[in-house]
Amino acid sequence: MARTVVISGGGSGIGFAAAETFAADGDQVVLLGRRQEVLAEAAEKIPGAAFFPVDLTDPRATRAAADFIYQQYGTVDVIVHSAGGNGVLETPVEHADLLEAIAHDWTLNFRLNTLTAVLLTEALKERLVDGSGRVLFISSIAAYRGSGRVAYGAAKAGLHPYAVRLAGELGPRGITVNVVAPGLIDHTPFFGEPMTDERLKRRVEETMTGRVGVPSDVASTLHFLASPAAGHITSQVIQVNGGAETSH
């Protein structure tokens, strides 16, 4: 039986790879994101995919997206939170004062990576299917290493305690909640511009597998965690980084 799988940030990168993976298994995927053109193009590539443009940092807009999903599908089987980013794709804002710049950076990363996931979850959790529902968050190796932009890593780390609390709340309904924390994933718009060869070489050397990750590595992990085989796995953070976190 086809499941309804809601994927935020589903128009590109890991979110799009997850959408392809779930759709290939016969699931109905609903793509959410801010960029209508990107969502529309992604939906055209995935049979039966639906999409709804929404700014998930906006409570009213998030409620509108939830209402659309309720009206079209009634219930939700899986939520994949792939929306986020480190802010490099946002419109630059100049601040004369250092503290204002820091406040902007940390607030932006919190809104993009933590608030989007929390608002969408709270809007949809009552419609999650009892006995088999799944909530899946995307964190980052930066939440452990403090690498890259610290505000980004901190915002991703904020998802971990929320997932634990949510797992306890939804567990009695037979719903699991887990976090996937990728390392460097190639073929995504995360960095805005391609890495230099030197930096990429250093990142590869940090892994035990001798390669960077690709979106399908994360998508496959998400797909497993959403499967019946993972029904007794909850409140966990699964790292997908080729051992880079432990070798650092």
Automatic annotation (TrEMBL):
Q: Which UniProt keywords apply?
A: Oxidoreductase
User: Is-annotated flag, keyword Oxidoreductase?
Assistant: yes
**InterPro entries referenced in this protein's UniProt entry, alphabetically:** KR_dom, NAD(P)-bd_dom_sf, SDR_fam
Q: Which Gene3D superfamilies match?
A: NAD(P)-binding Rossmann-like Domain
SUPFAM superfamilies, per the entry:
NAD(P)-binding Rossmann-fold domains
- Cite the Ketoreductase domain residue spans from the record: 3-188
Q: A single Pfam family, by name?
A: adh_short_C2
Which protein family is it in? Answer: Belongs to the short-chain dehydrogenases/reductases (SDR) family.
Instruction: Name it.
Output: SDR family oxidoreductase
